Amino acid sequence: MNRFLFTSALLCAILLMAKVFNPAEYGFSPDATPAENAVALQKALEGGNRKVVIDEPGVYNLGATVYLDDDTILECVPGVVLRKEGRFEHILVNRGAYNYYTNKNITLRGVHISIGDAPTVVGSPNGNCPGVRGQITFCRVQNVQVYDFLCHDMSGYQYCIQFCDFDGLIMDGFDIRGDKDGVHLNRGRNFVIRNGVLCTADDGIALNAGDWTVDCTPLMGSIEDGLVENIQDLPGGKCNFARLISGCWMDWHDGMKLMRGDIFRHGKNVYSVYMPLGLTQYVSHTPPTHTHGLWESPEGIKFLFLQDDGETRADIRNVVFQNIYLHAERGFSCSWEICEYSRLIHPDVPQKDYPVIDVTLDGVFADSHTPVFRGIASGTIRMHNVISKHSPLFQLNALHHDVLGSFPTERNILITGGDFRTNDGIPADIILLDPKGTAHVTLEGNLQSRPVIIQSNSNITVDGTTKVIQK
Prior knowledge:
By secondary structure, the chain is mostly beta strands. Among the domains are: 1-180, Single-stranded right-handed beta-helix, Pectin lyase-like (Pectate Lyase C-like); 250-307, no CATH class. Helix content is 6%, strand content 48%. The chain has 3 helices and 41 strands. The chain has a 25-stranded parallel sheet that branches. The longest helix has 14 residues, at 3-16. The termini are far apart. The mean pLDDT is 93.
């Protein structure tokens, strides 16, 4: 057992011996008003260092956000539903997300939330923590565990469950269906996400180390050392099963050309450009120095303060996806998000400083007609025992644009244990379309009754024992 899992188990054992609180003692009831239930559940949880058990099945309407403190277990028996009623942002959030300190040791067990027709509520850029937008959110946390989580009616534009600035996360057992992202991760490390079912109209699992900075992430930085395993992605899902977004940024300088969503560092502070949607370029002569919310420069450029830790990178490193079953028409996407919404790499950033995406796919079955892995980012991608019945394993494209910039890619691809004994009309197994980019492909130990078909206009090298045809 590794250090994180051992520590998690020990802390859970200690908490299980703590006094058990029942929110019914404070008036929590299926018959109470949403406002009364929010107050009652908050009283039961207040201060942390306790285990709170909702032991009576029923639908409990909540009319306000409930805050979680350190050393807390919230457990619901089967049949308990926490239903959002009214206009407020989160059902549950750790208190430190808004008060700028780290919460420790929070566990949810058997939590079932219902969103229904509750309106989307996203915090303002001048609020306490812009970018915190999950129905359940954990931001600035250590050792968070979520077991047997359920939401079947996710609606609107808020994520179902969001984790940001975390160290130590276990999410084990979940079933998420609805309109927006299911499990949304911003920067963090040491995580396991396992034993889940997804059917979402937006990304099932988002690993957004970088992200749209207008209102989608509270903090930028790397996601690393994680395992995602045993996930069923059901038919009907849209966008991506897993979206991987990286980015990097540079220091501000006089005369810098900026667009909406550009990120830069000035001193130790990190800012983004908070301007209307589009490709308009702005020339900056006055750097921001503020440490909260929005500020407008004399040139009319609005800047959003993000963080003060001097960060310059948002990589994705050492993440493994294992035993994944893709039944929807979607797969994995690796991106730098360079578009009219956000530009996560400025064109002036040298290629040697481009962000890292380093992931392994081990045991992935895809029953769809979209590429298993697609996108525009540089990266190292390992595929072991990945089976695609109807589509290419890879389709990685170029990004060269007069305004957005030119970003030559470098890809390292290793494929082992693949099955290339049928074709099913696929024009190519690997498609690499970037005339300014480079790619190194290694193919070893694959089953085949035909050559692997590679279509590429990149500067490509291929090695290994597998027979290959290059177009």
